[in-house]
Design a protein that fits this description.
Layout lengths: L27 H9 L5 H10 L12 H10 L6 H17 L1
Helix pairs in contact: 2-4
Cofactor: [4Fe-4S] cluster
Function: Acts as a transcriptional regulator. Probably redox-responsive. The apo- but not holo-form probably binds DNA.
InterPro entries: 4FE4S_WBL (IPR034768), Whib (IPR003482)
């Protein structure tokens, strides 16, 4: 699996989906978020949206409202990519025992 800044998109579950389906409002956002469940690059996608302060669409399983709330709760984070990748590594190491 590719995880660099550009390459992670080729592994995204939404790569063949209609992009308009990821930039929706209201209850339709739940359908868009469902595409993210189980996506192998969900962490990379979310990190890009948070680091880039992307204001629209569902990214990494979070709506723009959810991302804004997270950014307000954690103004101390300077790199979401670093934080989320470290958390992902820790979780995988813990699961491996």
């Amino acid at each position: 699996m590719q995880t660099n800044q550009v390459g992670w998109r080729v592994d995204a579950s939404c790569r063949d989906a209609d992009p308009d389906g990821l930039f929706v409002r209201g209850a339709e956002q739940n359908r868009a978020k469902a595409v993210c469940m189980g996506c192998p690059v969900r962490t990379e996608c979310l990190a890009e949206a948070l680091d880039g302060r992307i204001n629209f669409g569902v990214w990494g399983g979070m709506t723009e409202r959810e991302r804004r709330a997270l950014l307000r709760r954690r103004p101390d984070v300077t790199s979401w990519t670093d934080l989320l990748e470290a958390a992902k590594r820790d979780a995988l190491a813990a699961a491996a025992g």
